Amino acid sequence: MLWPLLTLLAALAITLVVGWAVDRSLQRLAARQPANRLWPLLRRCRIPLQLTVAAGLLLAAHPLAHLPEPGLQHALLLVLIGCLGWLSVRVTAALLEAGLGRYEAVAADPVRLQRVRTQIGVLRRVASALIVAVTVAVMLLTFAAMRTVGASLLASAGVIGVVAGIAAQSTLGNLFAGLQIAFGDTVRIGDTVVVEGQQGTVEEITLTCLVVRLWDYRRLIVPVSYFVSKPFENWTRKHPGLLAVVLLHLDHSTPVPALRAHLRELLDRSPYWDGAEWALHVVDSTPSTILVRATMTARGTDEAFLLRCAVREELIGFLRDRHPQALPRIRTGD
To answer: Residue 95 CB: number of other CB atoms within 10 A?
Structure first.
């Protein structure tokens, strides 16, 4: 019983030393290169690295320790494969996130940055799914029975592929739709979209669904296949700026030039106007009223909403206080 105990203690000591040494090295690299996000992200891999080292050492020392349990070596092999898969997922995620951070530091176009962020997120999920699938497959192939079944399955791979394709048609469709969304640049994280009459902001894109945060903080969960098979509105695909529109039904005696001048004063004081465009026109008339349309640009959807509310309130207050005759009235017969 002495050899197994010594083997376990030695493996534990070496594992702790390796984990400490790697962590200290990453800390020094992070101190030398504070702008590089890779080293702090790789520090998250310490636990799977230590487990991988421990499992590898115990597996290598198993014959020397003369352990009587026949299934222990196979169990250690399974643990080693699983830890390697976990470590691969962590390292891949760190590399992709560090690449995104480096691009964010030099990117000047917010639209392109959103596109790259969406693509990196989808790539991370696809890579993680592939690594997990390969890890599980390798673990299963360590069983003799599974190797026999695998050899027989290869003989009928065509039939099984057809059956699996039919059974997983919806899942595979969503998977390829997610890749198409990521690299087709139709919708990105942070875009303002209108889906089934609901306006919201894209909060998350996964391999199977897309999460849209609505204005009242509800979450609309939509399959990603929806965005490649049905039309939808994307208000911020090319540019995050929007045109805010305010419509007012007023009397024919409305002093339109004075109203236009007051709108310009409001926009000059407003923190929501981006200074690009504005206009005020009479776009329609009826026997009792005229329709005045005020348009102004804003930096985003939130600013456009707040700008519409502020302009509508201020213009109505201006007419009420200085030109009350311009407000619409209901005329009755004599």
So the answer is: 15
Q: Is residue 332 part of a domain?
A: no
Instruction: State how far the alpha carbon of 118 is from the alpha carbons of 111, 157, 220, 223, in Å.
Output: 11, 35, 18, 16
Residue-range definition of the domain harbouring residue 161: 109-238
Question: Residue 228 in contact with residue 180, Cβ under 8 Å?
Answer: yes
Quick one: how far is CA 267 from the chain centroid?
A: 34
Question: Do the beta carbons of residue 258 and residue 323 sit within 8 Å?
Answer: yes
145-189 tens-digit pLDDT: 666 655 554 444 444 454 444 444 555 566 666 667 766 667 888
CA distance 60 to 51: 14
Tens of pLDDT, residues 115-135: 677 778 877 888 888 888 888
- DSSP annotation string for 101-125: HHHHHH---HHHHHHHHHHHHHHHH
Out of 173, 206, 238, a domain closes at 238
Domain boundary among 184, 206, 238: 238
- Of the listed ranges 78-87, 169-178, 181-190, 307-316, the least confidently predicted one is 169-178
- What is the distance of C-alpha 292 from the center of its chain? 40
Residues 99 and 167 grouped into a single domain: no
Structural domains of the chain, count = 3
